[in-house]
Amino acid sequence: MLDLHGLTKTYKTGDRAVNDVSLSVPKGQIVGLIGPSGAGKSSLIRCINRLVEPTAGRITLAGTELTGLGPRALRRQRRRIGMIFQEYALVERLTVMENVLSGRLGYVSFWQSFTRRFPPADIARAYALLDRVGLLDHADKRADALSGGQRQRVGIARALAQDPELLLVDEPTASLDPKTSRQIMRLLTEICAERDLPAIVNIHDVALARQFLPRIVGLRAGQVVFDGTPADLTDTALTRIYGDEDWDAMRRAEAEDEAETREALAARDAMVLA
User: Fold this and answer.
1) Which structural domain range is residue 257 located in?
2) 185 inside domain
3) What is the pTM of this model?
4) Measured distance CA(255)–CA(246) in Å, rounded
5) Residues 32 and 152 reside in one and the same domain
6) At what angle do helices 235-242 and 247-273 cross, to 10 degrees?
7) In Å, what is the CA distance from 267 to each residue of 179, 215, 270, 271, 272?
8) 141 and 196: one domain?
9) What's the domain count of the chain?
10) How close are the terminal C-alpha atoms of the chain, in Å?
11) Comparing C-alpha atoms, which of 29, 59, 60, 76 is closest to residue 195?
């Protein structure tokens, strides 16, 4: 479905963010992309839809090579790729429904998009998507009135409104608490399974990647240094990706942090109910 061959990105500073990456993502597979800060995870995702221009290599989506396309052809191909951003990238002053419908902008005329007059079928699809992500009752709310988890759900619905053939997801849980993070990851994996939709998820939380993602690719210095299942992600493999670390101590610290977060959230909920 998605094939990367020798993908490389070197910035003008001389930094090579992506270094000769080759991998394939078949239809329906969801892949977690992990690695330390600066490993090239975000650059790799942005190269795929050419928000960042690759320096070398090939990107092929369902038989169509994306590298080398001109602006008009690239706009058409980008409709096939849904993007979900870490910071949501919503238009704060617009309603939830308007933000979801913005996923259809590549399919309507300039005047339809300018006046925000979308075909009835697009509106019906947007309502169905809001129902699927649990936000149907929030359709008329402004985006800036939502919580972080709700905003991420809007971002998911907007990406799905494109009817994409591939999802690219950049740090979907970075700004969320542990409970909401699990809810978002569960929603993403369920939707991909329902639609037989391939996805690449750039994720910093190794525990979440292990829990929800059937295939994990580890990057270090722009290169693939691990590609396997969660069961294959041993301490030795983690050291190859991240460098030397006391992984048992790190897991204990993560468990303690999560327990403290759960206690804080429970205390907050108790105050609200009181």
Assistant:
1) 246-274
2) no
3) 0.84
4) 14
5) no
6) 90
7) 14, 36, 5, 6, 9
8) no
9) 3
10) 52
11) 29
